[in-house]
Fold this protein.
Amino acid sequence: MEPNLNSIFNDALRLPVADQRKLADKLLRNASRTRKKQGDLSKYLGIFDSGDPRSADNDKIDSDLAREYADDHEPEN
């Protein structure tokens, strides 16, 4: 059963302010630990080399996206 986040949020708002602060502090500490476990993903940014020197050119990216969105992706006979 998936937790209902709205219900959890509403329950948290019913807590006394001091308990809300404690909860927020625990959540922030937990989020920080989770980030440390996952590591810094930014070290992988830009690691892929497509072989195309214009692969990061925004105009080329826009044109590639427009071409793909316009294609119905039906197999050609």
